């Protein structure tokens, strides 16, 4: 088996505190979150709302625990807001991540997204771009990709439930209509399987453009319930649609084998938004780490 020498394992803070639903994990502090990540054996973190906004302050906290910043989410509104404002917001985000030593910038288009709408059924009301929006979106995304390159950073696009880039067809079109030099892909196992896509197919087809990986598992019985009860994405999260690798339906062994054999270089970030009062964040972070180590 080929080695893990080019792969760094990180953990996302969303298991401790949910940025979209702050009531989930409101009791968990930033310091507790990063201390438990380090204790569980992770080398890096993505960034949540409770994290300090000043690079020097954040660096100090992370250095003490031997953690690096892998990346952070950027909500783009290319299709619904003035591009000048989107660029301005992106540059601020880019410069913060650059100061933290991150090499990739996670971007998701939130124009038309229903992922944050607690009343909107996830599958029945899934949004889609018009032809005009597709053009505006891909042009704008390439502009953000150029801005990332100015700092020798890479824009990685996050396909996501409840958005216009969720399905295999939508990922295909995004990849076809953007320049590989400007737009790369974030590969998220949980969102692919939740949507009904084949994660190994996407991994193999777009491996050359995958620059960031999220390992997230799903609970199949919960997803069936979400479909039958016409739940929203956020209600699905509350009901436990997601969990950590090794605790759900996805077999990560062929995925990890593929990444290693094809010499993937970059972060694998464990991510599972759950209610920490039901699924203790530290306990599940340890469970995921042990499962991945055993792979």
Automatic annotation (TrEMBL):
Domain of life: Bacteria
Assigned keywords, A-Z: Cobalt, Lyase, Manganese
Keyword Cell inner membrane: no
Protein family per UniProt: Belongs to the IolE/MocC family.
Protein name: Inosose dehydratase
GO biological process assignments: inositol catabolic process
GO MF annotation, one: myo-inosose-2 dehydratase activity
Gene3D superfamilies in UniProt: Divalent-metal-dependent TIM barrel enzymes
Catalytic activity, reaction form: scyllo-inosose = 3D-3,5/4-trihydroxycyclohexane-1,2-dione + H2O
Lineage of origin: Bacteria, Bacillati, Bacillota, Bacilli, Bacillales
Cofactor field: glutathione; Co(2+); Mn(2+)
């Amino acid at each position: 088996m080929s080695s893990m020498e080019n792969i760094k394992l990180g953990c996302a803070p969303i298991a401790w505190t949910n940025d979209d639903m702050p009531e989930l994990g409101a009791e968990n502090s930033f310091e507790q979150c990063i201390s438990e990540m380090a204790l569980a054996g992770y080398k890096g973190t993505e960034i949540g709302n409770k994290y300090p906004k000043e690079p020097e302050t954040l660096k100090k906290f992370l250095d003490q625990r031997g953690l690096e910043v892998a990346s952070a989410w950027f909500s783009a509104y290319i299709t619904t807001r003035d591009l000048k404002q989107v660029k301005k917001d992106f540059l601020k985000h880019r410069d913060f991540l650059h100061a933290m030593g991150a090499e990739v910038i996670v971007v998701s288009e939130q124009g038309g997204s229903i992922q944050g709408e607690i009343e909107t059924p996830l599958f029945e009301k899934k949004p889609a771009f018009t032809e005009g929006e597709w053009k505006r979106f891909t042009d704008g995304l390439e502009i953000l990709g150029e801005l990332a390159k100015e700092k020798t950073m890479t824009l990685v696009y996050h396909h996501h439930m409840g958005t216009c880039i969720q399905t295999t067809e939508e990922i295909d079109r995004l990849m076809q209509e953007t320049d590989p030099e400007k737009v790369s892909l974030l590969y998220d196992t949980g969102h692919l399987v939740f949507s009904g896509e084949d994660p190994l197919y996407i991994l193999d087809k777009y491996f050359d453009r995958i620059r960031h990986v999220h390992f997230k598992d799903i609970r199949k019985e919960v997803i069936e319930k979400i479909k039958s009860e016409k739940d929203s994405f956020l209600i699905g999260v509350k009901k436990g649609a997601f969990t950590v690798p090794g605790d759900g339906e996805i077999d990560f062994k062929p995925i990890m084998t593929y990444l290693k054999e094809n010499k993937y270089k970059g972060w694998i970030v464990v991510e599972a938004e759950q209610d920490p009062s039901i699924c203790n964040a530290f306990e599940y972070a340890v469970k995921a780490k042990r499962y991945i180590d055993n792979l």
